[in-house]
Design brief:
Elements: E1 4-9, H1 13-28, E2 32-34, E3 42-47, H2 52-68, E4 72-77, H3 78-82, E5 93-96, H4 104-111, E6 140-143, E7 145-146, H5 157-161, E8 165-166, H6 169-181, E9 186-190, E10 198-199, E11 202-203, H7 204-212, E12 219-221, E13 224-225, H8 232-237, E14 246-249, H9 256-262, H10 268-281, E15 286-293, H11 300-313, E16 317-322, H12 340-363, E17 369-378, E18 381-385, E19 391-395, E20 405-416, E21 419-426
Parallel strand pairs: 1-2, 1-3, 3-4, 4-5, 6-9, 9-12, 13-14, 14-15, 15-16, 19-21
Antiparallel strand pairs: 7-8, 10-11, 17-18, 17-20, 18-19, 20-21
């Protein structure tokens, strides 16, 4: 009988990519993937440690898996690297660091044999993920980079993910080509800080350019970038029809003093200049962002500066974080920690602004033709994302298939589960 394995992934796209790659290996070897709540022989938990809440959630899931089952429990991810002293490795629990995560299949598979391999015996390999199929998601993620050396004063990630390293460009292109040829229509680049890619003489824009040169009916999505790494060459590439018109451009604060205290590598002038340059190429370009409220010492006036920048950019979405103290980071020792009630009030203000800006932005697409990659079809209604990475739904017949591109005309914006979704009809042109 096939062994059953369940996955639980917390945190970032990179974690999700790594889980997907591992799931592909287990599937090929004959393992059955089951929901995490079901009985399994192996429970694999890919943890996150970006906030204190993430740590707590990771601990709770680990404890639940250990308590409710006699199965092998595999714990990996950033919580492992940041809290190894709090985790106990016993006969049926494997604690595996990020840089050994790519070996998890071999470690687990050997657990059920007479020739068991222990985690301590394998070498580090941060680019050992070579999935050629993705059993858990429709789009294909390609890892190009790992680690971070920015050392933002609030962030624990450089301490748990380690030194920044970049993958061989030819390997990236080869894997992308393989994924496109196997039927994927969307390639998503992933890593901890992908826009800081640097391998030999190649930079991030070179990676984008090489992938866009590949043959096939696909699109390339750049999920996030740091403002200081947006080069003129990259902006020129945005005119390519295969490149999604969306970037998650990290703001964190709209006040220069706070940005400096955060050890961010840009100021608001540089950030707004990047937005201006890209919107000159495409006025509808979709910028989404992260915003931290309640950073130590943030005054009402400095918070208002963030609000003003958000209004000026007209973000398509604002992901808001209340500052979370992470022990071991410089910000945790800063004076003037902001009261939790103030953080909550500011977070609510950003939430309301986000709802307003999101709706305003999506209404701009009424009457526009969009190319949608269909992800699901339920009861004759297709759902997917446009080239601007906006959710779209439209009525369809049997000629429309999942994982296919369809041109549609946006007729309006509907609210679906509190989310404004573009409502469209299939284009007749």
């Amino acid at each position: 009988m096939a062994k059953r394995i369940a996955f639980q992934t917390l945190g970032c796209r990179l974690n999700q990519h790594e889980t997907d790659a591992l799931a592909a290996k287990f599937t090929k070897a004959g393992y059955e993937i089951v929901p995490f709540k079901e009985e399994a022989d192996v429970y694999l938990i890919n943890t996150c440690s970006v906030t204190g809440k993430s740590d707590r959630k990771s601990r709770n899931i680990i404890n639940r898996a250990r308590r409710e089952s006699d199965a092998l429990v595999v714990v990996t991810g950033c919580y492992v690297d940041g809290s190894r002293d709090k985790l106990e490795e016993d006969g049926r629990t494997y604690i595996i660091e990020n840089d050994k995560k790519s070996h998890i299949f071999e470690l687990v598979d050997s657990y059920f044999s007479d020739d068991r391999i222990l985690p301590s015996s394998v070498e580090a390999d941060r680019f050992g993920f070579t999935a050629d199929e993705n059993p858990l998601h429709t789009r294909a993620l390609v890892k190009i980079q790992d680690g971070c050396e920015n050392f933002c004063t609030y962030c624990i990630i450089p301490y748990v993910r380690g030194k920044a390293i970049s993958r061989d460009l030819d390997e990236i292109v080869d894997q992308s080509k393989q994924l496109i040829e196997s039927g994927f229509h969307e390639i998503v680049l992933t890593g901890i800080n992908i826009s800081r890619y640097s391998f030999e003489d190649f930079k991030f824009a070179d990676v984008v350019e090489r992938i866009l040169e590949l043959e096939g009916d696909f699109r390339l999505h750049i999920p996030s970038m740091e403002p200081e790494n947006v080069s003129d060459k990259f902006i020129e590439l945005l005119q390519h029809p295969k490149l999604c018109q969306h970037i998650h451009l990290c703001l964190q604060s709209g006040d220069d003093r706070i940005l400096k205290a955060m050890n961010r590598k840009y100021d608001t002038k540089l950030f707004l200049n990047v937005v201006k340059k890209i919107r000159a190429v495409n006025p509808l370009f979709n910028f989404t962002t992260d915003l931290i409220v309640g950073f130590p010492g943030e005054s009402d006036e400095e918070f208002d500066s963030s609000i003003n920048v958000c209004k000026e950019v007209e973000f398509g979405h604002i992901h808001t974080f209340k500052y979370s103290k992470r022990e071991g980071t410089p910000a945790a020792k800063m004076k003037d920690q902001v009261d939790e009630k103030v953080k909550s009030a500011r977070s609510e203000q950003v939430r309301l602004l986000n709802e307003e800006l999101k709706l305003q932005y999506r209404q701009k697409f009424i009457g526009e033709t969009q190319r949608v990659l269909v992800e699901k079809i339920v009861d004759g209604k297709a759902k997917g994302y446009s080239q601007y990475y906006l959710p779209v739904q439209f009525e369809c017949d049997d000629s429309v298939r999942e994982n296919s591109f369809v041109n549609v005309v946006v007729k309006g914006v509907e609210t679906v589960k509190d989310e404004p979704v573009l409502s469209a009809v299939i284009s007749q042109q």
